[in-house]
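Late entry, evening session. Most of the bench is empty. Finally got around to the prediction I had been postponing all week. Sequence below, unchanged from the version circulated by S.P.
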Amino acid sequence: MTYSKLPYHRLENKADLDILLDDIGDARIVMLGEASHGTSEYYSWRTAISKRLIEEKGFIFIAVEGDWPDCYQINKFIRGYCKPGTKVSDILKHFNRWPTWMWGNWEVAALVEWLKENNDRPNTNKIGFYGLDVYSLWDSLQHIMKYLEKKDGHAVKAAKEAFKCFEPYSSDPQEYARAVAYVSEDCEEEVISMLQELGKREREEPGNPEAVFDAEQNALVAVNAERYYKAMIKGGGSSWNVRDGHMMETLNRLLEFHGPNSKAIIWEHNTHIGDARFTDMARAGMVNIGQLAREQYGRENVYLAGFGSYEGSVIASDSWGAPMKKMEVPPARKGSWEDWLHNLGGTDKLLLSRELREVEEARQQIAHRAIGVVYDPNREKYGNYVPTIIPERYDAFLYLDETEALRPFIVKTKEKEPPEMYPANE
């Protein structure tokens, strides 16, 4: 392949982010991606960008590709709602559903410590931290019950009916999904009724607004997780769309809760934040939160930044639910986007899509690497690459020539794990 010269900016230190902050402008939503769930530099650069967005542009919360109940523990910690003496390591141990390393790691611990320090300072905006994902069906139902035990009324009854409906499946989403694949009766009616009753009662008796929002969100997770597990059994892209639709619904609710001037930072895999219309996902009928946000808020109000690297190491697993390990990431496939950037010189680079669109080759579909929680470096030749029109999928791209594996905590996983829910490239 003949490599054309691409316009790029150096990426060596935090000051090099100035041009990115200028390019973000007045966007209300900034989504920061990653090309794997186990690369240290993706987390550290997203932290550096997030700090500047909070300090310089008034962003008010971070929402991530994580479960709502676990991430809400971080939110409580950084807002000072936890008992005195609680440490960040105590909070991150809540992330005990595989893959534990995604949020139970030292890179996230550093971000959480900074957020707490920011919130503890007087006369500063109090930043929130939330999970967008849909997997925590049982945890969410349990959080609802704990909240409602402090209240009287029909909402408690509705929650108990929902629990009764799910009870035969022994807290196993996979068993539930298999069962409803063969019968018409399921728990959707019960969880929707619970959500409606909960919202009604809380409007009548408003208390702590964020505690109310937390309870409502757990009910919404129960509704959409129930739909997700059913769609997962049927196969195809429908479960993916349920999941990203839930993420978008949650983002909308968070923006509404924090007010009309609120600004959001999103941390997710490139496969979620990069506009799906400019990849082969579109042919499969799949959408993602990046596409949905652009459609709902306007492209000028949503800024999408992708990440990638040429080689290095990563934390991942050989198979679903298997122990995590440090793996080598081989040099990128010849002719790929990462290979192109490496051959322009082995330096870290920041590329802006408004400049990339001037290069004809960059406007074509190019193979772009994506590493999931399950990874086999020996299969790089056959998979792990998404055909992508880079300057349309993203508004900016941060390229890191060589990267290192994430530094995870050692957290014991729960005995029962949800079934495989991440596609191979995510």
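Two things to note before I forget:
DSSP finds 16 helices and eleven strands in the chain.
The mean pLDDT is 86.
Will write this up properly tomorrow.
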